[in-house]
Design a protein that fits this description.
Order of helices and strands: EEEHEEEHHHEHEHEEHHEEEHEEEEEEEE
Shape: elongated
Strand content: 25-35%
Largest sheet: 6 strands, mixed
Strand order of the largest sheet: 6-7-8-3-9-10
Distance between the termini: 35 Å
Length: 371
């Protein structure tokens, strides 16, 4: 296990800078996930840590040793790729043992390490098979086993589950989580799948256009997003956003469709600093309920149901709030027994203790001392 530290890391291709001064410390034994949309720089950042991409400026250290000038083989890391990268002509055992043979380890040591890793991953019965005889999940286990036998300072995973179907992907997430709990190695994991990020990570690094937007625990990323981008990217369906105007000294939020929301007492001071401003109001679908009773922490709003998406365990409904052409549309998550139908008029309740506010210019979250 080892700490991985990035200090003002920059990557540019000619005049085109794609990674913009990343500072990050991944602690020994920590599971950190890089997440973001395609093209945000997450795989490029991982490849720079691995030594597969040169850095333009900055510093990368693994286990306290600066590795900027070291080739990949000298960094003592193991990487698991999206396409498995197995040797097609070698057996499972030989694929797992190949790197150890290159290092000229004794035969008994190779046998022990490969057997131990295969036992953890439950693939001992596959030793004699070739990659073409394996399923996608089995190939990924072999690729992981090949990384484990090296006993590296850190594991790097580059979207390892993206080629698997949904069911197998869910199973492999569990296996990777178990693997980390058993080995407690430092892991840096790249994915565009927010479910993988939320379920696997000790901390999530959210990247946007080569910049680190937020690095935090999954709960904080989801419930206390630092920016509009994070709030909209993490969550399925994503957070709802509506323009709003702060009025009455921070006591009222004016939403489209003639809707006025009373701000809870513990949020007034936060909103008062922005009285008279136009901001972005955010609320997650699970914080919207149908035909709920009003109360101190909720506000009943008239609405019309425009679209229903049954998911089995719950139902997503696109609802239009308020009246007139300016009425805003948001998505709510409702229990299937709610008995909703398209075109239905209903009263929905917005959880006023869970709303978010964002600066529409900078995209940054606006928070008070109690939030």
């Amino acid at each position: 296990m080892a700490q991985v530290r990035l200090k003002n890391v920059v990557k540019a291709y000619g005049s085109n800078e794609v990674i913009h001064g990343i500072d990050l410390s991944v602690e020994s034994g920590e599971f950190v996930v890089f997440v973001g949309p395609s093209g945000c720089g997450k795989s490029t950042l991982l490849r720079m840590i691995a030594g597969l991409e040169d850095i333009t400026s900055g510093e990368i250290a693994i286990g306290g040793r600066v590795v900027n000038q070291l080739p990949p083989r000298a960094r003592d890391i193991a990487m698991v790729f999206q396409d498995y990268a197995l040797y097609p002509h070698k057996s499972v055992f030989e694929n797992m043992a190949f790197g150890l043979r290159l290092r000229k380890l004794p035969r008994d040591e190779i046998q022990r390490r490969v057997s131990d890793a295969a036992g953890i991953l439950q693939i001992e019965h596959l030793f004699e098979r070739k990659p073409r005889e394996l399923s996608g999940g089995q190939r990924q286990r072999v690729a992981m086993g090949r990384a484990i036998v090296r006993q590296p300072k850190a594991f790097l995973f580059d979207e390892p589950l993206s080629n698997l179907d949904a069911l197998l992907r869910a199973e492999m997430r569990v296996e990777i989580k178990k693997l980390h709990q058993k080995l407690r190695n430092t892991i840096i994991y790249v994915t565009h799948d927010q479910v993988e990020a939320m379920t696997l990570a000790d901390r999530i690094v959210v990247l946007q256009a080569g910049k680190l937007v937020q690095c935090d625990a999954p709960d904080a990323i989801y419930n206390r997003p630092a920016a509009h981008f994070v709030a909209g990217f993490m969550g399925s369906p994503p957070m709802n956003f509506l323009p709003c105007q702060v009025g009455d000294g921070g006591r009222i939020l004016h939403l489209p469709g003639g809707i006025d929301l009373n701000v809870p007492a513990n949020r007034v001071a936060e909103c008062a600093r922005h009285s008279g401003r136009s901001l972005t109001f955010g609320l997650r679908p699970e914080h919207i309920s149908a035909n709920a009773q009003s109360g101190a922490s909720s506000a009943p709003v008239s609405a019309r149901l425009m679209l229903i998406e049954p998911l089995g365990s719950d139902t997503l409904g696109v609802i239009r709030l308020g009246n007139g052409e300016e009425a805003g549309e948001i998505t709510g998550r409702f229990p299937p027994e709610a008995g909703l139908s398209v075109g239905q008029s209903l009263s929905v309740s917005l959880a006023l203790n869970r709303f978010h506010l964002f600066d529409p210019d900078s995209g940054k979250a606006i928070r008070g001392a109690d939030w």
